[in-house]
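Service request form, structural biology core

Requester: graduate student, group of Dr. S.
Request type: structure prediction, single chain
Budget code: on file
Notes: please return the result as structure tokens.

Sequence provided:
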Amino acid sequence: MKKRAVFLDRDGVINEDKGYVHKIEDFFIYPQVFPALRKLQENGFKLIVITNQSGIAVGYYTEEDFHNITKYMLSLLEKKGIKIEKVYYCPHHPEGIIPELKVKCDCRKPESGMIRQAIKEFNIDPSSSFLIGDKETDIMAGHKEGIKSILVKTGQGMKYVKDTKADFVAENILDAVENFILKI
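Core staff response, request fulfilled:
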């Protein structure tokens, strides 16, 4: 049987987006994230993070820095009883300075490679799944795979509210969960 999932962008949705967040001391989870993710889990949704991390390709931080902050994030969520199935990330950027990462790929949002991979790996039904993001590139990636997509006003979301193609616009992740995902 196919499963339902919620795909979550990281910076601006789960944590404050301070621009290329890669240090634990700069990583602050929004307080609404804990009750939102708990409600999704209680309602049978798999939780999957999909995040562009071009800071690796452009040399702002290393993949090791990214993995360290990911471990930290997962441990904070686990302490609250929240399980993230997997964190997918794209380290590429066409204008990067790391030669092997200086590519145009199919995983960097607005492309949907990370979502496609998760759908296959976890046997996910896109038509009963959702994506929550704070940029139009997130929304576009979700729509490419037939996933209902929600723009949150946290992070960089306010820049996109006026012209978004999102299925729903929410104040934050908890609003998205309570007033859209769990209402459908």
